[in-house]
Structure formats: structure tokens, C-alpha cells
Amino acid sequence: MSVSVIRRIASPKKAVTAVALVAASAGIAMTAAPAHAATSSASSAQAIAHKMIPDAAQYKAFSNIVSHESGWNVKATNSSSGAYGLVQALPASKMASAGSDWKTNPATQIKWGLDYMNSRYGSPVAAWNFWQSHGWY
């Protein structure tokens, strides 16, 4: 199959299929992304938070804040302030107190965020109440 034929394929699904066929005919194995890549996805971070915050009301409040702050993106960065991560820590390096893998590990960021919310506001629910009144926490 020529490259020009592959370029003319409009559907991404067809293009992936065509690339897989070309790779297979050339004897190249195609594999899925490594399992650790999935740990930074929003649903994976939410599942981790759910395990770390078993109380439904506290989880919901935490989730509301994280949804507004980062959209559950572990690598979310505020270009104007430099705030970083799920909970938009400022400065971002504060999260190192929860673990050296703070830049990429949702569990580390969640741990730091929970500690911050509990120490500053008393709980994620109280932090969410503050967030609703002020648009930040």
C-alpha cells in the first residue's frame, strides 16, 4: 500500500487500520501504550481520589474543586500564575512535600491537595464552600 493511498483515507479509524496493515506486511509489531500512561487520565485520577476519600460528600467537594481548577489534568498548568496539577498548587513545588513524583503522580497530588484543604479549611467540603464564594481556594 503506498503512502499516497494512506493519505487519502479520510477516517482516522481507517487510517489506523491501514497503518496496522502496512506495519504487519512489513513485519513490524504494533503494541498498545504502556500501562503507566493510563495513570494520568482523568478517570484514573478520579478513581484514585475515590479510594483516598471514601466519604461521599468530601469526595464530591474535592471533585468539584479539581474539576474547576484543572479538569482532572495532572499536568494542568496556569500560564499566568504557574499553578500546577490537579489542585493547582502555587508554587507547584509545594507538592514535593507529599512525594518526589508530584509532577506526574495523581495520588501524590491528591494527597497534597487533601492535606492542604484539611489544614487550611478543615475539610474538602469547607474548601468547596470557600471556592464557591470566592472562585478560588
Automatic annotation (TrEMBL):
Annotated protein name in UniProt: Lytic transglycosylase domain-containing protein
Q: Which keywords does UniProt give here? A: Signal
| Species whose genome carries this gene | Streptomyces antibioticus
Q: Where is the Transglycosylase SLT domain?
A: 60-124
Under Pfam families, the record lists: SLT
In the UniProt record, the signal sequence range is 1-37
The regions listed as transmembrane in this protein's record are none
Which InterPro entries does the UniProt entry name for this protein?
A: Lysozyme-like_dom_sf, Transglycosylase_SLT_dom_1
Please name the SUPFAM superfamilies in this protein's record.
Answer: Lysozyme-like (SSF53955)
Q: What is the lineage of its organism?
A: Bacteria, Bacillati, Actinomycetota, Actinomycetes, Kitasatosporales
